[in-house]
Amino acid sequence: PHIIKSIENDSLPARFNEIHYTGIDSIHFEPVIEGMAQAVSGEYGATARIARIPGIEVCGKTGTAQNPHGKDHAIFVAFAPKDNPKIAIAVYVENAGFGSTTAAPIASLMIEKYLSESIHPSRTWLEQRILDLDLINNEKQ
Q: Is the peptide bond before 81 cis (omega within 30 degrees of 0)?
């Protein structure tokens, strides 16, 4: 796993410090953001409901990448809070199946820890579930 806490020197190429526009009209942003919010907190079939965090509105998208050599890869991308994002995250877990079963919980716990500096007592079961996984051999310990 790779986690970037900060970048401390300015030796990055200038292109990484410049704003780049997507060429996509901004009128399309709101429906995408709302769809990502509904994937986590929507009442109808929220595929990423496992990523819900008490008091934090998370926007996310689950994904599954097919793998012809074994189990599919689990993917989850998210940002939070919805109205004033402080963190964006992408979690890709090889051979872990669906994004909602492994990648979304990992991202959710990392978002919560980053924003709240702790895990809510109602979610310690989820933290323990992830800690009990052997993501190298892809099985419970």
A: yes
Amino acid (1-letter code) at residue 97 = G
Residue pLDDT, tens place only, 16-40? 778 878 788 889 999 999 999 999 9
The Cα–Cα gap between 141 and 135 comes to 10
Structure tokens at 63: 């994904």
- DSSP 8-class letter at 101: I
In a domain, residue 133? The reply is: yes
- DSSP annotation of 99 reads I
Give the domain range for residue 69: 26-140
Residue 119 lies in a domain: yes
> Per-residue pLDDT tens for 74-115?
999 999 999 999 999 999 999 998 999 999 999 999 999 999
- The span from the CA of 67 to the CA of 64, in Å, is 9
Neighbours of 114 (CB within 10 A): 14
Q: Which amino acid is at 129?
A: R
H helices of the chain, in order, are 29-41, 104-116, 124-131
